[in-house]
Amino acid sequence: MQVTVRVKPGSRKGPLVETVDDGLVVHVRERAVEGAANAGVEKALAEHFGVPPSRVRIVRGHTARIKRVEVDD
């Protein structure tokens, strides 16, 4: 399954996943430095969907706030 995700790095709310009309909003505490926020997004989504983190991967948007993420069930 693929989902569109908007990332909010450096958020005090994080880690938090919110559902919106066009996808998900993921708040993570990690800053967008050296892939730390991407790792936080993968971990938060894995927890949200109840799968291991190895089953979540970013398909598009590695350097953007809006990402396309694939989750293997």
TrEMBL record:
InterPro entries found in the cross-reference section: DUF167, YggU-like_sf
SMART domains reported for this sequence: DUF167
SUPFAM superfamilies attached to this UniProt entry: YggU-like
Gene3D superfamilies: YggU-like (3.30.1200.10)
Transmembrane annotation, as ranges: none
UniProt similarity note: Belongs to the UPF0235 family.
NCBIfam families assigned: DUF167 family protein
The protein, known as: DUF167 domain-containing protein
